[in-house]
């Protein structure tokens, strides 16, 4: 039970941290353009995970990353680090933080549709009911808030589509720890967006505003990305992100409490719908007899989860950790999600 709860809690905490970014970013846009703020947020994310990479367990990692993981990381950086946050912040300039937080539910739909069409990430009936319920909660919330600008809705939808691709690519990255992947993503995306921002308009923000943006990025993007990657590698992108769908609730709460935006009874009703939907998602495991090929890779894992029983100097490590390890060929049945070990791809090399 503890092994199942850990990725669930990681996804929920990642959602709360990310959800806080929308209302907390709104005031910063008065001094920073969207590309500039996106760049600082992702540089902050890189700074937030740097200690773990330099002095934590990541410091012992090798740099032998599979070519496919490098390509997946490059795609995640382009979609999730460069394009997604700029589209979101452009939309945030045009609409309230409450409405933008609500529209972020579209990311769940994008992730589920892309998973079904492109990434062989299957959901059972309960899972699809949960996905539909999540979308219904978002629609209900948006209806309760009234109409908003078409341009802002389109920009946030584009951001959600970018993050849908990012979610699936991130869930397939192995050969590096979540912290190291976040360091690469934050550093490259941050520099690229700052260069774009410098060409759009001069950088005129105060040191205080820039520092707040870096601090916000360290928590709402850095810590959030690491927690999400850890959960997605265990649960699969679609299920991890359906939990991540609670992010708009955190955003709405802060928009109301911190920015003084309005809260209706529709928000509370939608929160109940969302909670029921997430419970349905976690009923959508399945079991069948399946074969695993011999495999050597690295990712965050715990022992005694049907696939990891490696020992460290004769001791069993009970906490989540990351290192290179070997999997022997095995054929067995058990309840599972489409994680790194159960992607249901047609080819073992895919």
Can you tell me about this structure?
The chain has helices at residues 2-25, 34-55, 67-94, 97-103, 106-118, 125-145, 150-171, 178-200, 207-235, 237-244, 247-259, 265-281, and strands at residues 286-292, 295-301, 321-327, 330-336. Strands 1-4 form a two-stranded antiparallel ribbon. A two-stranded antiparallel sheet has the order 2-3. The protein is mostly helical. The chain has one domain (2-287). Helix 3 (67-94) runs antiparallel to helix 7 and helix 6 runs antiparallel to helix 12. Residues 344-350 have low confidence and may be disordered.
Features:
mainly alpha, two-stranded antiparallel sheet, 4 strands, globular
Number of separate domains: 1
- What does the overall shape look like? globular
Structural class: mainly alpha
Number of helices: 12
Q: Main beta sheet, described?
A: 2 strands, antiparallel
Distance between the first and last residues' Cα: 31 Å
User: What is the H/E string?
Assistant: HHHHHHHHHHHHEEEE
Strand proportion, as a percent range, falls in 5-15%
- The percent range for helix content is 55-70%
SSE arrangement:
Elements: H1 2-25, H2 34-55, H3 67-94, H4 97-103, H5 106-118, H6 125-145, H7 150-171, H8 178-200, H9 207-235, H10 237-244, H11 247-259, H12 265-281, E1 286-292, E2 295-301, E3 321-327, E4 330-336
Antiparallel strand pairs: 1-4, 2-3
Helix pairs in contact: 1-9, 1-10, 1-11, 2-3, 2-8, 2-9, 3-7, 3-8, 4-11, 5-6, 5-7, 5-10, 6-12, 8-9, 9-10
